[in-house]
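Exercise: predict the fold of this chain.
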Amino acid sequence: MQEELESIRQEALAAVDAANDLKELQNIKVTYLGKKGSVTKVLRGMGQLSKEERPVVGELANKVREAITAAIDNKTAVLEQAALEEKLEQETVDVTLPGRPVHVGGPHLLTRIIEEIEDLFIGMGYEVREGPEVETDYYNFEALNLPKGHPARDMQDTFYLTNELLLRTHTSPVQARTMQEYGGHQPVKMICPGKVYRRDSDDATHSHQFTQIEGLYVDENVRMSDLKGTLNTFAKRIFGEDRKIRLRPSFFPFTEPSVEMDISCKVCEGNGCSVCKQSGWIEILGAGMVHPNVLEMAGYDSNLYTGFAFGMGPDRIAMLKYGIDDIRHFYRNDKRFITQFHYAKGGTL
């Protein structure tokens, strides 16, 4: 049996030395050291040996097992290193090749329009405020001179969550909250951009979700002429120095008097075309002097303080400024549309 074990060792070591891949080594390990392997078979026959022979054969069998295991481990390391070197050779990177182009994204067009308007008003001394999109009926309506049952509420097409909670229909509640926060004892000069929601059928010019920017200036001796000058500056900075504006009487429950502002049509330069419906003017925003009731509910003395407010839609401004014919383009994430408005190196479109 000792001769048999020595023969197995020599045969196994020769097989390991001749192996060319890891799979072949695994087969050799199973053949000689597995449950049905050659060394195991010899060990199972030790019961037929005398007591004196068993320790000798057992020690030799262990030495044979260890020798075969060591040879397999060493050859495994050699083959793995060779495989690694071959893989590295195949995957060599040519560092002289030019890099792959990286396509850098940028802010969405609406985001950039909002930031452009924010920069303009910040430069005029306004602060930017934000508020909740899920609003209370009080701040969305009542604090803005729209008590329960007021017919103008029907114009808002509101998404109600409960009798007192709703998705805000405009960003004006932020104005009411800010005035209340200031306690009626200090001036307010702010704009509030954000998303608003109304029950509307989506089409080329309407959406159930859109963006608004509303502004508010409250202080002593604020006049309609201040409002007109502010809006004129806004129109020229956003649409170009050659833009003209006009104010038309209108009605909003939270302002009195109220106006709507038009800008001269960029397409026809005010001469009349299909874009402006032959009028030469395009409506852009609503505004007016803050209603005394709104001031009083926020804690301001309407005999001492006056103010103006305005509200505009960045969606509509972007459509007019860049000739976009469908508001739904802003929300479809179509790269063909979005990539048309990447920032140039100088930071402009």
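Check your answer against the key: The chain has eleven helices and ten strands.
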